[in-house]
Amino acid sequence: MAILGARALIDLAIPTGIDGSKVLQILLRDGRSAQQVIAEAAAAIGTVNEELMSMYGGLLYTTENFYSIYRQGEGARTETPKKAEFVMADAVRSDTIGHMLPLYDYEDAVAWTPQYLKRAYPAQLTADVQLIAERWKNRVAKELWDRALTDAEVSIDGSTTGYSPGWAIGTGTNINYIPPQYGNNVFTSSHTHYKYLDDDSADWGDLLEDMVEELRHHGIGGRLVCFVSGADVAEWVALTEFVELNPNGVTVVAGNTSAPVRISQGEFEGLPGELFGYVKDLRGLVELRYDDRIPTNYCFLTRTYGNNNPQNALAVRIEDGSGFGLRVNPMIKNSLNPELDSVLFEATHGVGVNDRLKGVAGYLNSGADAWVDATVS
Fold first, then answer.
1. β-sheet bridge partners, residue 129
2. Phi-psi sector, 157: left (phi>0), alpha (psi -120 to 50), beta
3. CA dist 350 to 4, 66, 359, Å?
4. Fewer beta carbons under 10 A from the terminal one: N or C of the chain?
């Protein structure tokens, strides 16, 4: 079960063997039973879980693994030797490194006591569920952008050896990572995927060019996606390299040789934010999306491999045997006459980096001379 959708959540909230007509026998103003209301709430939350995966699935991969292991650079270029007669080649072994993935429990609640349910209007109950859904969306979005735009290493359960790190950083962290060579590129301890520039002497185009290079020299090809702050959209649109998006059904008349109009056809789904254009970078076309949860002066570059693909940049660790998403848990009073006490909404997951090479965080600000972690509100 990858996602806790509507059908799954109804089954979990009202499991087989529970006599809902007895335990949840409260009748509401509109004639519905508490059992019906909880089932409807479960269905609504399940739909939100599916929407979240549809919205962010192109950035992440859900996994039950609690760690990730991958190869790192050997420090010097090597190659397969020619075979020599009567001499066996020296055996080699990969130099590996890894990191942990976090896991946290979350809980929200609505005060749906029997007294409240009997007196509440349907619109009040709907509003309660909408509030829970909104809070859950806020939580998931904050954690994803927090991880994408910070270089903080998170200690797992207070461990001094297990950490959930950010993107590739050569030195200065508990889990330093020097990538393996690719093509003519041999990486050193100065390698980092946290790029910054002073906007007194550079613009977003300069920063994006540096960021695109960071992905390309690891062999990451194809169309890249850059997520930017809604507050910075005007600056991105003003770039010379900006390519306007032409929605389907709109006809554009081109300019002349001295002032060509560059138009990109088509719109894409499955990623957060709103697509508003492209940048024609030296190393390929980059899709631009803005998201108001991203703070001003920041951006994030990656490549998507499809919804919930194991090659995506971020990982969402879920509990063994569970699925991704919020679930509904009616709390029943333990008494001679069991009845509904309250309704909890629970989830267990943790957001970490899946592939430390697949993401690059960018920071452009006046006087910037070092990377500064974003504060996602």
1. none
2. left
3. 16, 10, 18
4. C
Three-state DSSP class for residue 107: strand
Alpha helices in 149-247 (DSSP H): 204-216, 233-237
Angstrom distance (rounded) from CA 168 to CA 188: 11
Q: Is 235 exposed, middle or buried, given 0-12, 13-18 or 19+ CB atoms closer than 10 A?
A: middle
Q: What is the pTM of this model?
A: 0.87
pLDDT digits (tens, 9 = 90+) for 166-212: 999 988 888 899 898 888 888 888 899 999 999 999 999 999 999 99
Structure token pair of residue 159: 């461990």
| Angstrom distance (rounded) from CA 121 to CA 173 | 54
| CA 96/CA 90 separation, integer angstroms | 19
| DSSP category for residue 143 | H
Question: Which tokens hold the place of 185?
Answer: 């590129």
What string of DSSP letters covers 309-340?
-TTSSEEEEE-TT--BS-EEEEEE--SSS--E
> What are the residue ranges of helices labelled H in the chain?
6-13, 20-23, 34-56, 114-119, 122-148, 204-216, 233-237
d(CA 183, CA 317): 33
* pLDDT < 50 stretches in the chain: 17, 21, 264
**Torsion angle in degrees (nearest 10) through CA of 31, 36, 41, 46:** -150
Q: What's the Cα-to-Cα distance from 33 to each of 8, 20, 116, 236, rounded to whole Å?
A: 20, 9, 13, 53
The full set of domains in the chain, from first to last, is 6-75+98-365 (3.90.1690)
Query: What secondary structure letter does DSSP report for 4?
Result: -
Query: Amino acid identity, residue 131?
Result: L
